[in-house]
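pasting for the record
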Amino acid sequence: MDVELNNHGLCDHGLERMEELRSGSAGPRNPFIVGHSGAQRFMKVMETMLRGRIASDQKANTATPPAAKAASPVQSTRTCC
């Protein structure tokens, strides 16, 4: 794998990369092709963020009284990343 793609274009400069492709300012290179080590670094960052998110949500769940949990099926208030 040598490409970095994300569905959060504002979080990873994806919109800027798309503009580079659209305008031709990237030249012959594709700004989404980051090489194997770049892609591995991206995946490690995503894994770390996800693990942090899971831990944060689990901590919030244990701190919430059972009656409040039953009243709200949504466990997280985050909307992105």
